[in-house]
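Look at a sample.

——
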Amino acid sequence: MIVAPSLLSADFATLKQQVAAVEKAGADYLHLDIMDGHFVPNITFGAQLVRDLRPHSKLIFDVHLMVEHPDEYFADFCRAGADIITVHVEACNHLHRTVQNIKQLGIKAGVALNPATPLSGIHYVLDEVDMVLLMTVNPGFGGQKFIDAVMPKVERLKQLTANLERNVDIQVDGGINENTAPGAVAAGANILVAGSFVFGAEEVSKPIEILRQL
């Protein structure tokens, strides 16, 4: 099980220390939510923050672009140290080309779907992507309630990826905690993004250990 703490829920006054804490606790990825205030109703941070954190961590930097016109930002985030860049199906006019543009940079490509977006939008890129992110909340803010209705979509995606000749990771993001994570894992997810559950704990090692053992 891959655990990806979401930096969105961290204390931004002590980011370097918090990233070090989750790395020491056994996290695998650092999930970085990039929001532009247009695709979602919030603004977070940009490539400069990723660049500043990169020398201080060996975690996989998992950059989740919740932005309009995502292709404009790939080069900046790749240079900043991204290992994976994920784009939203809903934000891409030419999804296949967008995925190819990411992979040409020598990093992994992921595609994300909002809770109400059907899997049909990614059928023709499954052979190209490294990861599919299924949002289990509506994107834009941390601390939201998990949407159980997404679980059948996770199960269906697991069936689709099982027929491929290559591994495609299934990531879930939103409302992940000790109560919701087991169902997501049972449905087929192998990467768990957790924000408030991890960074809101007195000791980040405890929630990370819970998730890693699923």
Notes: The chain has eight helices and eight strands.
